[in-house]
Amino acid sequence: MKGKIKFRIIIPILIFLSIFLFLKNINPLRNQAKIKKIISENKRTIIFEAFFNQELIQIEFQKKGESYIPKIGDRILVEKAGKNYFIADFYRLDKLVILFILFLATTIFFIGKESIGSLISLFLSFIIIFGSIINNLINQTDPVITVLLSMIFLTPISFYLSHGINKKTTIAIFGSLISIIIALILSLIFIKKSLITGTTAEETGFLTAITQKNFDFQGLLFASIIIGIFGSIDDITVSQVSVVEKIISANPKIPAEEIYQKAIAVGKDHVNSIINTLVLVYTSASFPLLLLFAVSNKNFLEVLNYEIISVEIMRILIATICVIIAIPLTTYLAVKNLNKRNISNQF
Question: For residue 120, which of 11, 36, 165, 315 sits 20 to 30 Å off, Cα-Cα?
Answer without folding.
Answer: 315
